[in-house]
């Protein structure tokens, strides 16, 4: 099995079967099979028909299961879409070094461009606004250079990634858009954010948004970080306008937040581009398209 990261921990159905049987005997009879592609952070495995095991791939995801168990019940109670609240969280064992979780299997599929109806686009914007309205008391404040901190902390990383990307991006246009994002007024206060609202972390059925998954980047920070679907989901101009209206409703600084949101799209896409160009070409090319969308629209 090829790996995505140099330090990746590889999980297999047999390992997950042993771990589930040892920790949760009531599920020991359920078949374990490989699930959908787990993105950059996790290997996913179906456990029977109604459960999904999430196995971190790398050290940066080591605390995701514990954070999910702590915060997703609180967030889910306020959101208009399904959220994979863990049913069980277990610590390291049988040679596996990280906490891992078992969550409910949520029906739906990540939307490709054009899959969401106009109502589905508004669903997404309304979910962003609903998350932003959840009380933040005690929530984990974003730190360092993680998504949701002041954009200025990412300045060196973005400029270095533009250089490393070479002619894969229009460097001058990217930096012009980035400078505009840096010039926007900072967020007046931190709000709950998902932090990674790319299509792979959305679930849709019949053109409507039904779920949001993979909450590893959640926390309290700049709410503009959750505006990235405007440039990351293949929206048309009309759909982008619908999303903007719903997602920025109630913000004290909608125009500045929109500029910062564009900056967050550049942070995510430009930094990913050189790292994943050879490791995960499909994701890198999608990042390249997101950079172009953020610069153009």
UniProtKB/TrEMBL annotation:
Keywords: Kinase, Transferase. Pfam families: APH. PANTHER family: AMINOGLYCOSIDE PHOSPHOTRANSFERASE-RELATED-RELATED, BIFUNCTIONAL AAC_APH. Residues 34-264 form the Aminoglycoside phosphotransferase domain. InterPro entries: AGP_Transferase, Aminoglycoside_PTrfase, Kinase-like_dom_sf. GO terms for molecular function: kinase activity. The keyword NADP does not apply. The keyword Signal does not apply. This is Kinase, aminoglycoside phosphotransferase (APT) family. It comes from Promicromonospora thailandica.
């Amino acid at each position: 099995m090829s790996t995505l990261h140099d330090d990746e921990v590889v999980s297999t159905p047999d390992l997950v079967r042993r771990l589930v049987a040892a920790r949760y005997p009531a599920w020991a009879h359920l078949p374990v099979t490989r699930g959908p592609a787990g993105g950059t952070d996790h290997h996913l495995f179906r456990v029977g028909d109604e459960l999904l095991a999430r196995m971190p791939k790398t050290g940066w995801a080591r605390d995701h299961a514990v954070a999910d168990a702590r915060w997703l019940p609180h967030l889910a109670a306020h959101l208009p879409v399904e959220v994979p609240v863990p049913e069980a969280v277990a610590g390291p064992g049988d040679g596996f070094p990280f906490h891992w979780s078992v969550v409910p299997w949520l029906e739906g599929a990540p939307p490709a461009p054009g899959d969401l109806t106009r109502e589905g686009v508004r669903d997404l914007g309304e979910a962003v606004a609903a998350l932003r309205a959840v009380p933040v008391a005690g929530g984990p404040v974003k730190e360092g250079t993680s998504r949701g901190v002041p954009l200025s902390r990412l300045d060196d990383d973005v400029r270095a990634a533009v250089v490393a990307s070479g002619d894969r991006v229009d460097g001058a246009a990217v930096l012009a858009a980035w400078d505009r994002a840096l010039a926007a007024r900072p967020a007046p206060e931190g709000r709950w954010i998902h932090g990674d609202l790319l299509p792979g972390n959305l679930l849709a059925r019949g053109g409507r948004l039904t779920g949001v998954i993979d909450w590893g980047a959640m926390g309290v920070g700049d709410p503009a970080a959750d505006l990235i679907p405007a440039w990351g989901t293949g929206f048309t101009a009309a759909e982008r306008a619908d999303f903007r209206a719903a997602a920025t409703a109630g913000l004290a600084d909608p125009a500045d937040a929109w500029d910062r949101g564009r900056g967050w799209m550049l942070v995510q896409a430009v930094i990913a581009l050189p790292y994943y160009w050879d490791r995960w070409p499909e994701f890198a090319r999608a990042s390249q398209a997101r950079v172009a969308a953020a610069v153009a629209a």
